[in-house]
UniProtKB/TrEMBL annotation:
Superkingdom classification of source: Eukaryota
GO cellular component, as recorded: nucleus
SMART domains, sorted: ZnF_C2H2
Principal localisation: nucleus
Organism (species): Gasterosteus aculeatus aculeatus (three-spined stickleback)
Subcellular compartments: Nucleus
Domain C2H2-type: 55-75, 83-103, 111-131, 139-160, 174-194, 202-222, 230-250, 258-278
Family the UniProt entry places it in: Belongs to the krueppel C2H2-type zinc-finger protein family.
Protein name: C2H2-type domain-containing protein
Species classification: Eukaryota, Metazoa, Chordata, Craniata, Vertebrata
Keywords from the UniProt entry: DNA-binding, Metal-binding, Nucleus, Repeat, Transcription, Transcription regulation, Zinc, Zinc-finger
Record-linked Pfam families: zf-C2H2
Length: 290
């Protein structure tokens, strides 16, 4: 018998997801998550929901028990979702689904700018930044911005380790020359100047490139995408340096000065052409014989 038959009071059960009270288990199981009332517009953005589930390890709060359960795995290291095709395991079912696409080859997320497809929305989001030029991660010291968080972290380690607490400058020396790089990724890119490796293939033509960034800039010649916008006149450009050069037409800046006269230029190419007036050097002509 239930306690209510003795006390005359109805006991209630509370849904761990939304906090709704129910008279019995049947009513509790009948709750439709889609019909759970959403936060009203007059609620404060910072207002906490009435029922929070706190992590006993770090104290972090979660609105749903299921979210707390997933979070606890970051502390326990539990990985209850095994891949059926290899030995890897994952803490969340969604991560397992994304991983399994490595085996199946499924890529359900297409890029709207080019023909590439991706196994996850996260991969697609990172790729889209190569088209849009978006750089959401900003260095608070020198104001440079980056498309990926680890690019910003590498930048801080390499350029501002003496300012940022917790960072120690580490160098990655090249085994083929005397150059020393600021990260393992930078060293890997540099070593291709010795090996001649060009692993990045253009998806529109036969050209190959040693650096992924060079490939991205090259493919814009095919797609016509111009993600860099002039704030003064609205013109758009495929590469950052062409926008920087163009902006000098508005500011009047001419940073490239001739050492033999008082003329200055907006781009290094203009200075090289001008220097030939003084040196008498003639531009190289290439002839093709049929």
């Amino acid at each position: 018998t239930s306690l209510s038959t003795h006390t005359g009071k109805k006991s209630s059960l509370r849904c761990p997801e939304c906090g709704q009270e129910c008279e019995n288990h049947s009513a509790l199981q009948a709750i439709d998550p889609a019909e759970t009332p959403a936060k009203t517009s007059d609620q404060s953005e910072n207002e906490k929901p009435p029922f929070l589930h706190s992590c006993s390890v770090c104290g972090k709060d979660f609105p749903y028990a299921s979210k707390l359960q997933r979070h606890l795995r970051t502390h326990s290291g539990e990985r209850p979702f095994p891949c059926s095709m290899c030995e890897k395991r994952f803490p969340e079912k969604g991560l397992l689904m994304i991983h399994e696409r490595v085996h199946t080859g499924e890529k359900p997320f297409p890029c709207t700018f080019c023909e590439k497809r991706f196994a996850s929305q996260g991969e697609l989001r990172l790729h889209r930044r190569t088209h849009t030029g978006e750089r959401p991660y900003h260095c608070s010291i020198c104001l440079k911005s980056f498309s990926r968080h680890w690019h910003l972290k590498t930048h801080l380690e390499a350029m501002h380790s003496e300012v940022v607490a917790g960072f120690t400058r580490k160098k990655f020396p090249c085994s083929d020359c005397e150059k020393s790089c600021n990260s393992a990724a930078e060293l890997r890119d540099h070593q291709r100047t010795h090996t001649g490796e060009r692993p990045y293939q253009c998806s529109f033509c036969d050209k190959r490139f040693a650096l992924s960034g060079t490939l991205v800039r090259h493919e814009r010649l095919h797609t016509g995408i111009t993600p860099y916008h002039c704030s003064d006149c609205g013109k758009t450009f495929a590469q950052q340096w062409t926008l920087t050069t163009h902006m000098r037409t508005h500011t009047g800046e001419k940073p490239y000065s001739c050492t033999q006269c008082d003329k200055s230029f907006v781009a290094p190419g203009e200075l090289r052409r001008h220097t030939r007036i003084h040196t008498g050097e003639k531009p190289v002509s290439i002839w093709f014989w049929c």
